[in-house]
Amino acid sequence: MSGANILRSPHPDVDIPDLPLVPFVLGRVSEFPDHPAIICGVSGKTYTYAQLDDAVKHVAAGLHAHGIRKGDVVGIVSPNLPDFPVVFYATVLIGAIASTVNPIATAEEIGVQFADSEAVLIVTIPELFEKCTAAAQLARTVREIVVFGEADGATPYRELFAHGNTPPVVEIDPATDVAALPYSSGTSGIPKGVMLTHRNLVANLQQMQAVNEVIDSTSRVLGVMPFFHIYGMVVVMGGALRQGACIVSMPRFDLERMLQLLQDHKIRMANIVPPILVALAKHPVVTNYDLSQLKYLFSGAAPLGTELASACQERLGLTVRQGYGLTETSPVTHFHPMDDRRVVLDSVGPAAPNTECRLVDPATGEECAPGERGELWMRGPQLMKGYFNKPEATAACMTHDGWFKTGDVAVVDELGWYKIVDRVKELIKYKGMQVAPAELEALLLGHPAVADVAVIPVPDPDAGEIPKAFVVARAPLTADEVMAFVAARVSSYKKVRQVEFVDTIPKSPSGKILRRLLVEQERRRALPSSL
Q1: Euclidean distance between CA atoms 410 and 333, whole angstroms
Q2: Is CATH 3.30.300.30 the right assignment for the domain spanning 428-524?
Q3: Which DSSP letter does residue 235 get?
Q4: Ramachandran category for residue 189: left, alpha or beta (phi over 0 → left; psi -120 to 50 → alpha)
Q5: Coil, helix or strand for 493?
Q6: Does the bond joining 331 to the residue before it have cis omega, within 30 degrees of 0?
Q7: 21-410: what fold?
Q8: CA-CA distance, 269 to 154, in Å (whole number)?
Q9: Does residue 261 register a pLDDT over 70?
Q10: Whole-prediction pTM
Q11: Got the DSSP string for 138-186?
Q12: pLDDT of residue 213
C-alpha cells in the first residue's frame, strides 16, 4: 500500500512505558495514599489508594495460593463494586489473565465464555453463584468459584486475604503477555476472546492521558459504565486510577441515583453512552438536581448525533465530547480533545497519538479518495494481539502488515477528524444507494417527541431494502409525522418508509443498538404462518 494514503494522527507520538499494567496504573499510590480510590455509590464502601494497593497484593497472593499461575484465566462476573478492580488487578499482577463477563448474561452464554477462555477460577457475587455454577458445569474447566460475601459451596472472598500481601514476583513481557481477555459484543457473530497485552492497555491509557488531562488526584469521576466492558474497564477504571482520581461506582444504572451521585460528589466529568445523554437532555427529573459542577460528558460505545449533543450542552451548560474505539483496540482509537474549539460534535475526532488510519472501499479493497466513505482500518500499539484460539478470525480482520479492519464506515475531513457513518454490514441498500441507519437515528433523535430510535433495513421487492424506524415516543406522534420530519432533511433515497412505535429499543450493556434483534424480528414476521 502506498504510504501517501496512510493518515497519521495529528498529535505527536507519545512514549509508551515498557511496564506491566499494574505498576503503570497503581505506580503512583505513594503520591496520594489516603485519597479515596473508589467509593460505592450505593453502599458507601470505600478503598483509599493505600488500601486498594494492599488489597490487590493480598488477593494476588491469595489467588496464587489457590493455584492460579501465569497464563491462567480468571473470570470476573460482577457488577461495578469496589472489589472489582481489586480482583482485576490482582489477577493481572501475577501474570494471570482477567476475563470479564457480563453479569446479566445467561448461564449458557457465560458457560460458552468460560469454556472458550478456558477459565479455571471465577469470582462473582452471591446472587450470581447458582448461575455461575451452572455455567461452570457446562464449561468443565472451572476448578473454583469465589464469591464476594458467602454462598453455600463457594469460596468466600475473604479467604483470598488469608495468605499475606506478598505475592510472588512474576516475570511479565508487556509486549507479548496477555493481561485481559474481554469478549467482543457478539452483535456481528460468535463472541470471541480479545487478547489484550499489558502493552496494549498501557499504551491506550498513555494515548488518552497525553491529549486529555481533565482529571487528576482531586477529581471524582462517575463509574456507571460497566467495568466488564472495555469502555468501563480501561477508560473509566484504568484511566481514573492511573490519575489518582476517585471513582464513584454504580452497580447498575438508575437515572435518579446517578443524578444524586453527580450532585453529592460534585463530579466534574462522566463517561457515558448516548442513551444516558438522551435522558440528560430530555428527562424532566434532571432539573431537580444541581449539576453545576459537571463540566464534561464524554460519550462512547455508540454514535452520538449533533442534535443530541447540542441539546445536552445547552440544557446543562457543559462540554460534550465523544470518541471511538473497539474492544480489539483497547479500546480508544479516536477522540475529541476536550478543550479544542474546532470540535464537530457528530465526529469522533482525530486519531489518537501513535495511531495510523486508512479508508478502504469494502467492496473493491481500493483506497478511498479524500472525502469518500470507506471502511476504517487502523494500526497502533493499542491493537490486540489477536482473538484467543481463533487464528482464522484473527487473519480475517488483521492484515499481515498490522492493519485492523474495523468493520465501520467512516469519512475524514481536511483537519483529520473522522465521522463514523455506519457499520459495513448494517448499511441499507436502497435501489443500490447506501443509507446509513446511524445517520437517520441521529436525525430523529433531534425531534422533540422522539425519546429513542433504531433504524434497520427491511426487504422490499422494488427497492431491495427500505429504511424502517422503530421509535420510542415521548409525546403524541404519528408515523406520517416521523416520515415527513426525515423527508424534509435528507435525500429522497434516505427517506424512512416504515415506522413502528415501541416501548424500548434493544441495546447491549454498553449502549449499542442491537439491530440484529430487530432484523430477526422482522424476518420472523415475514415468514408465512403455519396452518
Answers
A1: 13
A2: yes
A3: I
A4: left
A5: helix
A6: yes
A7: Rossmann fold (3.40.50)
A8: 38
A9: yes
A10: 0.86
A11: HHS---EEEESS--TTSEEGGGGGTT-S-PPP----TTTSEEE--B---
A12: 84
